[in-house]
Write a structure and sequence with these properties.
alpha+beta; minor pseudopilin epsh fold; Mn/Fe_SOD; three-stranded antiparallel β-sheet; about 180 residues; elongated; Mn/Fe_SOD_N_sf; about 45% helix
Length: about 180
């Protein structure tokens, strides 16, 4: 399985296809001591307020900011290219989902970059056939449709898995790959 890819530029890109962008959200860490442990110098009420309200607000704001950042990255040049090449994001999503559902047996659904044409393309590859080696497309986004990727949760209902996979795509990585490959 691909864990690193080289774009035609020779620049090594971040590991990605196995990583679906399901990075855990930040959470408020527990204090290693009781709120009252600093009494009489700092009382428990102040510690509880600062930890459970103020510190928690910073953590929540960080999570919100990271989510907005990921959305903004996907809305930039990559989104414009998706609109140009597929008409809309929804049409792109429909086409990639259909290509992935249509893989007979095991394989991959792909969003690739056609360096010659400077356009995005959708492809599907059976088994472990490499996208670049079989189509010449540079891999930007791969959707694993081997049954081991979804069978325990979705059984043999691949369309349900493909509907869910859109919620965990690492658009930051797809955008990085796109930006590197179009140079």
């Amino acid at each position: 399985m691909l864990s690193r890819a080289l774009c035609g530029t020779g620049r090594q890109l971040a590991p990605a296809l196995g990583y679906l962008g399901s990075r855990q959200k930040h959470s408020l860490p527990d204090l290693p001591y009781d709120y009252g442990a600093l009494e009489p110098h700092i009382n428990a009420q102040i510690m509880q307020l600062h930890h459970s309200k103020h510190h928690a607000a910073y953590v929540n704001n960080l999570n919100d900011t990271e989510e907005k950042y990921k959305e903004a990255l996907a809305k930039g040049e990559l989104l414009e290219a998706i609109k140009r090449d597929f008409g809309s994001f929804d049409k792109f999503k429909e086409k990639l989902t259909a290509a992935s559902v249509g893989v007979q047996g095991s394989g991959w659904g792909w969003l690739g970059f056609n360096k010659e044409r400077g356009h995005l393309q959708i492809a599907a590859c059976p088994n472990q056939d490499p996208l670049q080696g079989t189509t010449g497309l540079i891999p930007l986004l791969g959707i694993d449709v081997w049954e081991h990727a979804y069978y325990l949760q979705y059984k043999n209902v691949r369309p349900d898995y493909l509907k869910a996979i859109w919620n965990v795509i690492n658009w930051e990585n797809v955008t990085e790959r796109y930006m590197a490959c179009k140079k």
